Automatic annotation (TrEMBL):
This is LysR substrate binding domain-containing protein. The keyword Transcription regulation applies. One of its GO terms (cellular component) is protein-DNA complex. Belongs to the LysR transcriptional regulatory family. Keywords: Activator, DNA-binding, Transcription, Transcription regulation. Residues 23-194 form the LysR substrate-binding domain. Residues 197-245 are annotated as: Disordered. Residues 211-230 have a biased composition (Low complexity).
Length: 245
């Protein structure tokens, strides 16, 4: 006996710090028969991974090279500065880039923020990764400005962070190959945009409503007349015409 074919999984790439768990849960509720595979990638590699067909869609950080990709912006992340817990900036709930003057501000090669001009004093050498920069902050060598989700991802007990009010925000977007906009991609786009399962673009909503039987139509018509107060009074009822004796 031939075994039933297993549906092709939907592959979703995502970059560090982005948390797709809410959308993955909704996907599982709506499409339990189609497995969703998560593909971890770096912010720099995400566009190439999508163009090479190694994922059906991806949660990426902007800006990216949009060549061959469809992109919709989702939200923007708040920038924060990561510092040792005894650092002077922890006295305030939030700081500005001007408050970082005189500080060594680390600028890793995988920096997720699009700076026009980096605040503070640059380090003699750029760390290779955000994780390396966090280690340098813990060693007291400098401070690091990055999206809040990355600060949480690299949390350490000896470090903390504060919002930086005028640093660049980090936009997060959903991207997918322009020439591979499948029904499953459309389904996931609907999920991240908050469309309900009964949305006009949902698969279930495209099925026509079943036709009513004649008796159902008559019952509905009678109910509508009763609601409108138009139910006819029986001829032999009190106040109506009397029949012949």
């Amino acid at each position: 006996m031939t075994e039933p074919a297993v549906p092709t999984p939907f592959r979703l790439a995502y970059v560090p710090g982005v948390t797709p768990s809410k959308w993955v849960r909704i996907w599982g509720e709506r499409h339990p028969d189609i497995r969703l595979e998560l593909v971890v990638t770096t912010a720099a590699d995400a566009p190439t991974l999508l163009r090479d067909g190694l994922a059906d869609a991806g949660l990426v950080r902007l800006p990216i090279d949009r060549g061959g990709l469809s992109v919709i912006a989702l939200y923007e992340e708040t920038p924060v500065v990561v510092v040792p817990k005894d650092h002077v900036v922890t006295a305030a709930d939030e700081v500005s880039t001007a408050d970082l003057e005189g500080e060594i501000v680390l600028h890793p090669l995988d920096d997720a923020l699009a700076w026009e001009a980096l605040p503070g004093t640059p380090a003699a050498q750029r760390p290779a990764t955000t994780a390396d920069a966090i280690e340098l902050v813990a060693a007291g060598i400098g401070v690091l400005v990055l999206p809040q989700s990355l600060a949480r991802l690299h949390h350490r007990k000896d470090l903390t962070y504060r919002t930086v009010t005028d640093a660049p925000e980090s936009p997060v977007a959903l991207a997918w190959p322009q020439d591979a906009t499948t029904d499953l991609v459309e389904e996931f786009v609907g999920i991240v945009r908050g469309r309900s399962v009964n949305s006009s673009r949902g698969r279930d909503a495209q099925e026509p409503a079943p036709k009513r039987t004649a008796s159902q139509k008559a019952a509905a018509k009678q109910a509508a007349r009763a609601k409108a107060g138009k139910v006819p009074t029986p001829r032999n009822a009190k106040g109506g015409k009397r029949g012949r004796r």
